[in-house]
Design brief:
Strand order of the largest sheet: 2-1-3
Number of helices: 7
Structural class: mainly alpha
Number of strands: 5
Order of helices and strands: HHHHEHEEHHEE
Helix content: 55-70%
Distance between the termini: 46 Å
Number of domains: 1
Shape: elongated
Radius of gyration: 20 Å
Length: about 260
Amino acid sequence: MEPSRALVARVDSHSAYRALLTERAQAQVLRLVAGFDGWYDHDAISRMTAEVVKYVEAAQRGVAVATDAYLAQVATEIVGRTIRPVGSIDPTELREGITHQGVYGRLADQYRYRTSLGLPHDQVMAGVIDRLGVLVATDMALAFTHQARRVMESSPLISGYRRIIRPEMSNGGACGLCLAASDRWYSRGDLLPLHDRCVCTVLPIRGDDDPGRLLNRDELDRLYEDAGTTRRDDLVKTRYRIEKNGEIGPVLVNEKHAHRGPRDL
């Protein structure tokens, strides 16, 4: 069945709001990190990372609450019965084996390492800021994927779910890994595999009612037709596999690229 206008509007609205929360969190922590000068002071690093974590976890809670409401709404339309929000996940428990303060404390390790290479301060900080952006985006995505799984698992009326690509939310358009993975049907208990700066969302499936499949096709047809390119054909050829990251769970990787997993470590 073709996705309704209301369903498409909810997908768009949730994606935009999640992006806004991510951008706000990145801007907030950037102000803290960009002006920090205690990279060799353990106590100062602890105070700085505690402030960063406060902003990050608040934004994660916002993503979780919004995702809970979004999936309750779209699932209600797809299954034809009322699906209620299930309550948000605890953002402090999403990374395995490490606290958020430990994660963001790695910024100091990177600063000191890049400084030891003799790089100019502006280059050192550029690397730190880039990593900070990736860390925040990953934590927002983890809040989304874990909340999505919680909602899906709670309703036996949902058969599974599909990855919904959001090419308009990324500067480079649709990622080949995400496009290839969007053909897959995920079970309710699966955690959506991620990669750096992933902006995909999800839609539930009930039996043969899989509106996400048609929405993915329509989005790509429209965007690449507007761009006058056949890049979609190249993206479709991308081959991926799912690897286990011991800290954040399943990740998408290009099958042509080497990936260091838990066994290697």
